[in-house]
Amino acid sequence: MENNTYAIITGACGGLGTSFALECAERGYNLLLVDLPAAHPEKLERFLQENYPVRVKSIALDLTAPEAPAQLLQRVRNEGMAVSLLVNNAGLPQNDFFENTDSDYMRKMVEVNCISYVSLTSALLPDLKKHPQSHIINVSSLGGFYTLPRKTCYSATKGFVRQYSQALNMEINRYGVHVSSLCPGPMTTNINNYMLHRDLNWFSQQMLVHPREVARYTMDKALKGKEIIIPGRLNRILHRFSSAIPSAISKRMIINSMKQLDKKGKVSPA
Fold it and tell me: Is Cytoplasm given among the entry's keywords (predicted)?
């Protein structure tokens, strides 16, 4: 790895974002960590600097701010960073019905889950093109393939990320810039999610994948140029066979699953 080559990770202080940071550090990437000021990305910066022989920098940004892409690009240029990997991981969830979800929150969800990915990629693409081989990983979701009650806007944003990533890859892979869409199922990212998933049936629990495993599998596949990445063997099998299930049956399965969770007052993150 070149001494000034960096991976940029947004949403770096969450479960999956931190897992990507650890995985990239283990692979020798220098890191620029991006997260909200309240997430204190400088703490993760210090931890990684103390434990890995790589350069680590951080920047506190609200990615919904119009000036955020320019501020990030300015930091990259000022410090002479050569960006070879961009992980667009920042995101907001949805775990309630549309009518119960605040409209300002839904607007912010679209800004974080979709617009920030487009804006940051647009700002950093000239730098990514300077490398013989560089990579963009956009975090979508297995839920982005389906219409999910209580994830009305969330699943739509993740569907956007997947289709946008595939189209972008067709446009820019001729420059040696490869775009991958990560579509994970539910992950055990924190104690709240663990307690939630503990209430699911055995089959649903088998779909769970630890974020460290997700990050490791994703990096392996993305560096080989894979376009759609689905961690977890069972998740891949279910996705492969889901296209053979009539839509009426799949909708009924989704509704029944939601009813199971609704009885417990919980909805699993997708």
Answer: no
Compute CA distances 97 → 49, 92, 106, 244, whole Å: 42, 15, 11, 28
The answer to whether 217 and 184 are in contact (CB under 8 A) is no
Q: Does the model's pTM come out above 0.85?
A: yes
- At a CB cut-off of 8 Å and minimum separation 6, what does 179 contact? 135, 136, 138, 165, 166, 168, 169, 172, 173, 227
Going from the C-alpha of 48 to that of each of 24, 26, 28, the distances in angstroms are: 11, 10, 12
Residue 27 one-letter amino acid = R
Domain extents in the chain:
5-263
User: Domain 5-263 has what CATH class?
Assistant: alpha beta
Please state the separation of Cα 146 from the chain's center in Å: 17
Count CB neighbours of 183 within 10 A.
26
H helical segments located in the chain: 15-26, 41-51, 68-78, 103-110, 116-128, 152-172, 191-198, 202-205, 211-222, 233-242, 247-263
User: Rounded CA gap, 133 and 155, in Å?
Assistant: 31
13-40 tens-digit pLDDT: 989 999 999 999 999 999 999 999 999 9
pLDDT tens digits, 115-164? 999 999 999 999 999 999 999 999 999 888 877 777 888 999 999 999 99
Distance from C-alpha of 53 to C-alpha of 260, rounded to nearest angstrom: 47
